[in-house]
Amino acid sequence: MTTANATFGGGCFWCIEAPFKELAGVHEVTAGYAGGDTPDPSYRAVCSGTTGHAEVVQIEYDPDEIEYVDLLEVLFTVHDPTQLNRQGPDVGTQYRSIVLTHDDEQRQQAEAFIEELEREGVYDDEIVTEVEPLETFYEAEAKHQDFYERNPTQSYCSFHIPPKLDKVREQFADRLKNQPVH
C-alpha cells in the first residue's frame, strides 16, 4: 500500500477532521498544529493566537485510491476559503485557511486548483487560502483526536460539523467509505 500525506487548515480542526475521515482511501486523519514558529505548542497556546500556528489536520491517504486534488476539493467544500483568519465563530490566525504542502507537486496542484476556482468565479469574494511548505507538524493532544466521533452531542460539534458532513456525503457520495451496495 502506498501512502502520502496532506496537511490542511480550514478553521477548527474538529470541523475538518470528521469530513475527511469519511473518504475512501483516507487511512488516518490527525489533528494538530502547523505553520507557526513556536516549537511543540499546546492547544491553549495555539488558541491564544501568539504561536503563529494554525489548527490543521494531517491526512494519511492512499494516492492510488484518492488523489490529492480530490482532497483539495473536499477542503474547499467544507470551509469558506474567502474568510481571512476565521471560520464562522472561530476568529484568529489559528483558524486561517491554509494548505501546507509536502512537496513541490502538491504546491503546484494547490496553486493551480485555487487559480481555477478564482477563474471560474466559484466564490463571490477573493480566496485568501495560504499555500506554504510544511515545515513541522505537531500532533495535538490526545483529547483532540477523533473529537467529533467521541463528542457528537457536544454543542459546538453538534451545530457546526453535521452540515459539513452532509455536504461531503452529498457531493462526494462516490468517494465515501462504506458505500451502500446496490
Secondary-structure topology with pairs:
Elements: E1 4-10, H1 13-21, E2 26-34, H2 43-47, E3 54-61, H3 68-78, E4 86-87, E5 90-91, E6 97-101, H4 104-120, E7 130-133, E8 138-139, H5 147-150, H6 155-171
Parallel strand pairs: 6-7
Antiparallel strand pairs: 1-3, 1-6, 2-3, 2-8, 4-5
Helix pairs in contact: 1-3, 1-6, 3-4
User: Which word captures the global form?
Assistant: globular
Integer average pLDDT: 95
Low-confidence stretches: none
Rg, Å, rounded: 15 Å
Number of helices: 6
The N- and C-terminal alpha carbons lie at a distance of 27 Å
Helix content: 25-40%
CATH structural class: Alpha Beta
The total domain count is 1
Tally of DSSP β-strands:
8
Largest sheet, spatial ordering of strands:
7-6-1-3-2-8
| CATH topology tier name | Peptide Methionine Sulfoxide Reductase, Chain A
Largest sheet: 6 strands, mixed
Topology order in helix (H) and strand (E) letters: EHEHEHEEEHEEHH
Structural class: alpha+beta
- Level-2 CATH architecture: 2-Layer Sandwich
Strand content: 15-25%
The CATH homologous superfamily corresponds to Peptide methionine sulphoxide reductase MsrA
Describe the structure.
With 182 residues, the protein is α+β, with helices and mostly antiparallel strands. The protein has one domain (4-175): Peptide methionine sulphoxide reductase MsrA (Peptide Methionine Sulfoxide Reductase, Chain A), CATH 3.30.1060. It contains six helices and eight strands, in the order E-H-E-H-E-H-E-E-E-H-E-E-H-H. The protein has helices spanning 13-21, 43-47, 68-78, 104-120, 147-150, 155-171, and strands at residues 4-10, 26-34, 54-61, 86-87, 90-91, 97-101, 130-133, 138-139. The strands form two sheets. A six-stranded mixed β-sheet has the order 7-6-1-3-2-8, covered by helices on one side. It has a two-stranded antiparallel ribbon with strand order 4-5. Helix 3 crosses helix 4 (104-120). The radius of gyration is 15 Å and the shape is globular. It starts with a strand and ends in an 11-residue tail after the last helix. The mean pLDDT is 95.
